[in-house]
Amino acid sequence: MGVSPALALKIISVSTRILCVNGQTTHRIVEDAAILGKSLGYSVSVLPAWNQFIIKLENLNNVLDENTVTETLVEVIDVTPVGVDMNKVSKTLSVLDSVRSGSLPIKQALTQLDEISALAPASMLRFVLMAGLGAAALGLIFGVTDGFTLLAIFLSAALGAAARRVVARFSRSLFAQPLTAALLAGLVGAILQTLQFNVSLQFIEVCPCMILVPGAHIINGSLDLARGRISLGIARLTYSALIILMICLGLLVGLWIGGQTLAPDMVGQQLPIIFDMLAASIAIAAFGTFFSMPWRVLLIPMAVGAVAHAIRWGVIEVSHDVVIGAAAACFFVGIVATPLAHRLKLPFAALAFVSVVSLMPGVFLFRMSSALVEIYKLGGKSTESILGYAASDAMTTIMICMAIAFGLIIPKMVLDHYFYENR
């Protein structure tokens, strides 16, 4: 195509930066960079790390003719994969496809990539509204049918979402937003406990925190580990763990400020499967908003997630095991989401997590955190029942997370190997 090495390196580095910071899987970033480089006449290798990507570009003539003098360029991109924006990833991959086909000149492509990088996330109104609806939908999935409880969940989550946007304007901290939103959820729960409202208080405290869980980063980290990128995978999972720690800390501190602890566990009402599927679809739409998913494709993960939730519902009815139910649902999503991610040019981790968000074990996680605090406060006076509840919730959380990770990753890696790699 007659592209200079410097220009080829520039479009590869710019596109790699956009894909990295917006949630694309590491394997796809490395693969797409190599394919783009080859179409431009260069051999490209990418070495990913947590806070930088190293790009090496060489002339392919070096392979064909040993006497050819080649130029090797190396660029280090300072970038950290902490965001998720499916719209930017989709648009970037479309631009790269046009460059590879020769229908879009490099300079025009660079201009478009700059515009994509500057795209704004979902509007404040949409973000706040969908956060409230998503949290309320999770409440429905857990069996909450009381109107006041659902309204309180909606308002608490919406307040937290608005606070997140305000905090983002004044702080670049990676953890300030989830900490603030969880703190507000704890305060709201503490106030309602103090006023002694006869509602499902634990769900009011927990559901607004559930929508803060960094599931896409957990899946990306698990994929990196599965593909042998140990240091990057550990870094991603550490980042996810710190966010979860901030969520737990914010919730418990908010309750402590209000003079309360996590409300006692309450058993929700079993909903008919059709309402379960509808609630799961609403939760999926909410997370699609958080990840700036294009409206034109939002119905697809909603449908996939609804079917996955129905599979989980059916498996649990037969086996009475939430872990097996989560594994079966995620295996289905892994099979369906892998080709969809390629077809729709969306990051697999975000698409898959959006489809299984209702399966995340947030309730068990927050109950475990509260139990651990109680154990600390009681010291040697801790009862065996508290210890038992903490251990049970901890193991349930770990087992469900493993079921989700393996259920999504195994079918993806198999399908990628046989249908999408080395294309």
Q: Can you describe this structure in just a few lines?
A:
This protein has helices at 5-21, 26-39, 61-64, 86-101, 106-117, 124-141, 147-170, 176-194, 201-210, 215-226, 230-257, 273-290, 295-319, 322-344, 348-356, 362-378, 384-420, and strands at residues 42-48, 52-59, 72-78.
Spell out the blueprint of helices and strands.
Elements: H1 5-21, H2 26-39, E1 42-48, E2 52-59, H3 61-64, E3 72-78, H4 86-101, H5 106-117, H6 124-141, H7 147-170, H8 176-194, H9 201-210, H10 215-226, H11 230-257, H12 273-290, H13 295-319, H14 322-344, H15 348-356, H16 362-378, H17 384-420
Antiparallel strand pairs: 1-2, 2-3
Helix pairs in contact: 1-2, 1-5, 4-5, 6-7, 6-9, 6-12, 7-8, 7-9, 8-9, 8-11, 10-11, 10-15, 12-13, 12-15, 13-14, 13-15, 14-15, 14-17, 16-17
